[in-house]
Amino acid sequence: MWSGQPHPDEGHPPPLEAVPVSWKSVGSCQSRRGSPGALAETSAGEGTQGEEGPAAAQLDVSRLRSSSMEIREKGSEFLKEELHKAQKELKLKDEECERLSKVREQLERELEELTASLFEEAHKMVREANTKQAASEKQLKEARGKIDMLQAEVTALKTLVITSTPASPNRELHPQLLSPTKAGPRKGHLRHKSTSSALCPIACPAAGHILTPDKEGKEVDTTLFAEFRAWRESPTLDKNSPFLGRVYREDVGPCLDFTVQELSALVRAAVEDNTLTIEPVASHTPPTVKAAAAEYGSTNTCALSGLARACRHRIRLGDSESHYYISPSSRARITAVCNFFTYIRYIQQGLVRQDAEPMFWEVTRLRKEMSLAKLGFFPQEA
């Protein structure tokens, strides 16, 4: 049975507060209760109060609902603002992460490029070092290989510079070595005239030059001397000149005519071009021969003659890396021809300051060495 007050657990609004009523109203109500009209009014008033109670309760419920809706709306707005703030912060953090990832990728690329450039630079330095080392070793070999050529040139220069030695004094430059009767009337650099009919001056009909016989009793060939004097007027290395043409036919050609014709032609061209190198072979170093040079010889076989000989030297033609091992006899023949061409080049360059006759005798001596070397005479090495 409903008691007029809702139970708080049923979700109904709380009961209305009691309205104070004055005693006059109560008395009037009691006075009214005494009469039938008053009872009717009383019952009518109670009915009116019963009708106003549920309306007020509904009004309070609507107010509560509106207030709860306002609270919910405000709560939802607050939550939306917080969510929006959180989304903004999350977006900023995502942008920061993306920026940091880009920085990391850039650093990784730079590190890879730097590492690659360092490796490339290191390889480049190694290649340059190897190239320089190879060039230095090549220059060292070439320098060692030119020892024989330089020794031959020094020998030729000695014949030009040293005009008198204690063993063989030059009496033309030292008149005190002559007898008093011969040294008395001498003035300047006059030639010594002998009264012997065997040592009478010889007139050169081709050039009109007075030739003095050699001290050993050898006589100058007038034809050869005339050809040499004509060549000396305008020295050249052209083999078509009468002087050099004769030397090529009689001395250079036979001296460089070896069994292996193809290699002989190459050696002759290298000697003429002054590009031939002779290198000593170390006894403790094993032979390192290129494939092209292996076909011509080794340390036990001469590449020019093809004979089994102990080869202590090897030759290199021009800038080629191929080496050809040669015997002492072949080396002597090549050296004799090189000495001749060295002296001829000195004359062409104007380095020889002598008269025509001493120069002719030096040329004759060099031709004699080529002839002896061609015949197999060569100095034994120590």
The shape is rod-shaped
Work out the number of β strands: 5
Strand order of the largest sheet: 3-4-5
What structural class do the secondary elements suggest? mainly alpha
Q: Could you estimate the helical fraction of the residues in percent?
A: 55-70%
Question: What order do the SSEs take from the amino end to the carboxyl end, as H and E?
Answer: HHHHEEHHHEEEHH
Overall average residue pLDDT: 74
| Count of runs of 4 or more consecutive helical residues | 9
State the distance separating the first and last CA atoms. 152 Å
Outline the biggest β-sheet: 3 strands, antiparallel
Strand content: under 5%
**Radius of gyration of CA atoms, rounded to a whole number:** 65 Å
Poorly predicted tracts of residues: 1-13, 15-44, 163-170, 172-214, 284-296
Chain-wise SSE layout:
Elements: H1 23-33, H2 36-145, H3 147-161, H4 180-183, E1 202-204, E2 209-211, H5 222-233, H6 242-255, H7 261-273, E3 276-280, E4 313-317, E5 324-326, H8 328-348, H9 356-374
Antiparallel strand pairs: 1-2, 3-4, 4-5
Helix pairs in contact: 1-2, 3-8, 6-9, 8-9
Characterization of the model:
- With 382 residues, the chain is mainly α.
- It is built from nine helices and five strands, in the order H-H-H-H-E-E-H-H-H-E-E-E-H-H.
- The chain has helices at residues 23-33, 36-145, 147-161, 180-183, 222-233, 242-255, 261-273, 328-348, 356-374; strands at residues 202-204, 209-211, 276-280, 313-317, 324-326.
- The strands form two sheets. The chain has a three-stranded antiparallel beta sheet with strand order 3-4-5. Strands 1-2 form a two-stranded antiparallel sheet.
- A hairpin with a 4-residue loop joins strand 1 (202-204) and strand 2.
- It starts with 22 loop residues before the first helix and ends in an 8-residue tail after the last helix.
